[in-house]
Amino acid sequence: MLISASLVLLMTPALAFFYGGMSRQKSVLNMMMMSFGALGLVSIIYVLWGWSMSYGTQDIAGIFANPFEFFGLKDSITDADGNYIAGAYGYANIIDVGFQLTFAVISTALISGAIAERVKFGSWMVFAGLWATFVYFPLAHMVWGGGLLSHGETGFAAWMFGTTDGEANISPIDFAGGTVVHISAGITGLVLALIIGKRRNFPRVPQRPHNLPFVMLGAALLWFGWFGFNGGSAFAADGLAGVAWLNTTVATAAAMLGWLAVERIRDGHATSLGAASGVVAGLVAITPAAGALTPVTSIILGAIGGVLAAFGVGLKYKFGFDDSLDVVGVHLVAGLWGTIGVGLLADGSGLLTGGGADGFKLFIVQVVIAVAAMVFAGCVAAIIAYAIKATIGWRVEDEEEAFGIDFHQHGESAYDTAGPEIR
């Protein structure tokens, strides 16, 4: 589990490479700093109140847990005799705290790609802390902590289809974060893109990636880290972890090929950016389903996810919003498909894989949790975004954006293009 947690932690610097390469040369450092900033801030607040809000025992309306119950991890590490407290899966609870912390970090950092090259770093940091607190922690509690979207007897699925021995007869499936991570980040990216507005000259002037090798390196490291994300969500070194690992591999490979096929047919060539983006789309799609599918159905899920995401990134041109680095097209579209696709393809229980009437019920449950996560995250994110816009503001000055946000926000540039120093 510690190895898995370390792999997931690596995903945030990997995301910095992925997003940084997709940015323009004059804004690559700012883009990477948004990921590193989230890594620093969310790690701290997770220890202070994030764990308590997500997995505390004092449930508040099924939406979040009391943030003060385990504030600063009190009563979460050792008991009165100094022994490490065992968590739900048998190992020390502190290990699970570390594992879940890394999920909160990467989920927050994902959003930054939708607002690249135009926002104040300080405003981003304020948003990151508020979003983690009021969106991510409640969603983690609702889905994984026994709240409204969980499999327990107090969740909506139990209300719809009844319970047996305290568990919902038809349980929602979100193995590693389709709703909590990707749908929430994707819809938040859309909300921010609409509220903050477009970059200067978008879409009239092409906004080309400045370093495609960075993009491919980032995608490779994300794929590597994702094995901790999905394999670690089995919470044991067992067959389920192995299934999640293999499903993650083949779904991602299929999504990459699906994306490249769309490019080849539509545009006449398959691109490195498409390959890297297809990898991420496949990883997103399989995340909620990694432990519930077979390798063959994972290939199907991944291929469809890659195709849908390849078309999804074009939505910003059709509807006129500036999702700078395709957070909506990749994370929202593929996240929705992966979450809903579980209801169709879950091994022996999906609508198309032998589930029968219960398969139809599972499909309905998956649609409901996907929509619920999207509505909750979108509404709360909008409130936070408007509050920041009305107070400290989001946008840098037009001159700063045109000259380069790296220099104006961070006082440095990624590349020395000024020539020899004059003494």
**Backbone CA Rg:** 21 Å
- CATH class division: Mainly Alpha
CATH architecture: Orthogonal Bundle
CATH topology: Ammonium transporter fold
Within the largest sheet, what's the order of strands?
1-2
**Beta fraction of the residues?**
under 5%
- Decide which structural class fits the backbone: mainly alpha
Could you say which overall geometry the principal axes of the C-alpha atoms support? globular
Oligomeric state of the chains present here: single chain
Please report the distance between the alpha carbons of the first and last residues: 55 Å
Number of strand segments: 4
Give me the number of helical elements.
Answer: 15
Overall structural domain count: 1
Question: Low-confidence spans: pLDDT under 50, at least 5 residues?
Answer: 419-423
For the largest beta-sheet, the strand count, sense and barrel status come to: 2 strands, antiparallel
Helix content: 55-70%
Query: Averaged pLDDT, please?
Result: 95
List the helices and strands in order. HHEEHHHEEHHHHHHHHHH
In words, what does this structure look like?
With 423 residues, this protein is an all-alpha fold. The chain has a single domain, classed as Ammonium transporter AmtB like domains (Ammonium transporter fold), CATH 1.10.3430.10. The protein is built from 15 helices and four strands. The protein has helices spanning 2-22, 28-55, 93-111, 121-144, 156-161, 178-196, 212-231, 239-267, 272-286, 295-312, 315-319, 327-345, 356-390, 398-403, 405-410, and strands at 59-60, 64-65, 163-164, 167-168. A two-stranded antiparallel ribbon has the order 1-2. A two-stranded antiparallel ribbon has the order 3-4. Helix 7 runs antiparallel to helix 8. The chain is globular and about 65 Å long. The chain starts with a helix and ends in a 13-residue tail after the last helix. Residues 419-423 have low confidence and may be disordered. The chain crosses the membrane at residues 32-51, 124-144, 175-197, 209-229, 241-261, 273-290, 296-315, 327-346, 362-388. Keywords: Ammonia transport, Membrane, Transmembrane, Transmembrane helix, Transport. InterPro entries: Ammonium/urea_transptr, Ammonium_transpt, Ammonium_transpt_CS, NH4_transpt_AmtB-like_dom. It comes from Corynebacterium vitaeruminis DSM 20294. It is a multi-pass membrane protein.
